[in-house]
Specification:
Mean pLDDT: 95
Largest sheet: 6 strands, mixed
Strand content: 35-45%
CATH class: Alpha Beta
Order of helices and strands: EHEHEEEEEHEHEHEEEEEEE
CATH topology: Deoxyribonuclease I, Chain A
Distance between the termini: 6 Å
Helix content: 10-25%
Number of domains: 1
Radius of gyration: 17 Å
CATH superfamily: Endonuclease/exonuclease/phosphatase
Number of helices: 5
Length: about 240
Amino acid sequence: MPSVLSLNIDGYNTKHGKWSVRRDYIRATIEYLKPDIVVLQAAFYNRLLDGSNQAEQLTRLLPKYPFCHFQPAHTHKGITEGLALLSKIEPADIYLHRLNNRPEYKEASSRIIMHAHFGFTDGSSFNVLNVHYSPVYEQTHDYLIETLNYTEKLPDPTLLIGDFCRPADSPLLALLHAAGWIDAWDSLYPNEEGYTYEAGGELRIRRDQAWSKNLAISRAKTIMNEANGVRMSSHLGLLVKW
């Protein structure tokens, strides 16, 4: 039963604690949950602070996750932000798809899809697509269309997971429903909120999501590790199994 943990780690944001402390909370969470694959959003590399990016720092603390891939999305003021994947087994392939920005929206952030393809000796395979979309409504509309066009070419079961930057009830997500994708949380727990992101100091947005195509998701769970005023991120983690 494969499992994937997704977490936006908030870069070097100190709202919920210094990175050096939050990093240990994230490590402990991964060690406790033992997911097969970990996907990270807002993973940073600041050469003035550290000699390695945040994903590499984590994998050094997690010997059971020998595979680590950090994919830069953009660099701003000397800080590189990207997506990352940690895994117990090495994927057969890692692909990058760079999403297109509308020219009228001059976002500092470029957005990408990190696509990991896992294949096994018994012939089974699946895809994990790690995403971090835009807070701009129209831009995420375009990103979702691009994502659907990209995934049409994928014959294997696919998990689309990450920070969608939109609440789960956003009209934009009807695009995924119409294309046959299934919202893992909503399909399993239609009467539970499943909030993952805070607004106004309270958890009230289900922004971190997992959508599946030809995968029967058996479990989804939001993950918080918090103590003494410190927690992993402003996001909760999202764990899914199938």
